[in-house]
Each structure stands twice: as structure tokens, then as C-alpha cells.
Sequence to fold (272 residues):
Amino acid sequence: MTTSTTEYCLFQATDANADAAEMRAVMEEQGYVFLRGVVPVEEVLAVRRLTLELCAEAGWLDPSHDLMDAVVAPGVGNIKEGDPEYTPMYRKLLKTPRFHDLPAQPELMGVAQKLLGDEVLVHPRRIGRVTFPNYLSATTPPHQDHYYIRGAVETYSSWVPLGDCPISLGGLAVWPGSHRQGFIDHTAIHPGAVGGHGVPVDESQINWHTIDWQAGDAIFFHAYMIHRALPNLSGNRLRVSTDNRYQRPKEAIDPGALLPHLGLDSNDDNQN
Fold:
């Protein structure tokens, strides 16, 4: 697979200062709202640094390169979410206050309030992603978040790259308008992938939208939006990102959304 922008359509950006009516109209039409530079860059980079410090502590990064370049150390094999080698680092990340507070940044909450109204609940299940290069079988397949979230249909996911994320690094791609298809059975099974259940799609019929992400960018999308990860084809760099969910507090919520991601709420580093 190549990674040129000609392979994809580019996101249509929405002004973060747009009013609630305009933002809701964009969401209804596209199923997503993409915003350039909405999150303070210094905050994004601070969370990137603390994430990569934990990756370095785990022995994943090459100390001969700048930490913020996220270059994988020679000889480190592929590791993915859920692996025993991943769990100790991830538990520490989930317990880091600055990581936990990122989705509650006023700028992100402001977007969520325009989409949902004044009262917004950020799911306590914060999610971080650390994606190793060239681990194609682990790439998250096309899916809808409602399959995993359940609860209120009008739940919006946000995805924020922790640093610049060119297409070659494997960012997020969405299928605009696919939320209007409603919920689709996730009958496609992808063994070994992060999020192994997906929707059956004909890739030749989809115009995936993505972009070369910059630090501070964010996207919000509907729970029925079909989206996927792109493969990390950078060669030697980790891709780090975070995704979180927003809904109205009085609407239905799955109990799991109130718990730490992957159940990592104990001090037992062998827990998965």
C-alpha cells in the first residue's frame, strides 16, 4: 500500500468557532467534524512527551534519537494493545493525570457542547493508542464505535493525534456519510487486529477521507460512522494518539464506559 494523499480524499475542515447550528449541520451531513488546531499544541506535546517517556522506560525507543521522534529501538518486536508487554506501560499512562485530563480541555468540551447541548459527559474510559510500525495485521479494521460503546446512539468519538501524524504514520480515516446506514452487524473478523471485529466493506466502493494531521488537530464523529486506522508504514516510528467519547449525561450508557480501558484498574501488571 502506498501512502500518498492522492489515494484518499482530504477532510473538509470546520471552523472551530462555528456556531452550534452549523456544527450540527456538518455532523448530520458528513458524520464527522474535523478541526484544525483546536487543541492547544503545548498541551498535546506535553501529553506526547509523557507517553513517550513511558515507552522509553519500557525499552521500546532508541535512545540515540530525540525522544519526541518516537523512533523504535533496534530489535524491539511488534507489540500491540492487549499484549503482556504492552500492559504495564499502558496502565501507567491511564493513571497519568495530564493524559486523563486531555479530553476535558475547554476547546474539546466546547465542540462537544455545540454538538450535544450544554450538558456533556466525557466517558471515564479514556483510551490511548501506541501503534508500532509495519505491524499490518494489528491495524484496526473498518468498524463503527457503537459496536464497542453501546449506550446512546448520539455518542460522539474524538480522535486526537499526539503530535504531527502524516498519512504514512497511520492516522484515522473515515467514510463520510456512512453513519446514515445505521448500525451494521460486525461480521468481519480480523484475527490479531486491535478491535478484531469489523463491518464487511467493499474497499473499491469507498472514498476514505483522511489528512496529514498536525499537532492540535481533532476530529469528532458519530457512533455509526464507519472508520478505520491506516497502517503505520513509517518504517521505525511509533504513532501515538488518544480517542474519547462524549454524550449527554442523562442518556443510556454502557457500564463498561464508566470503567478504565481494558479493565486496567488494579496494580497487578499481569492483568489483561
The chain has six helices and 13 strands. The mean pLDDT is 93.
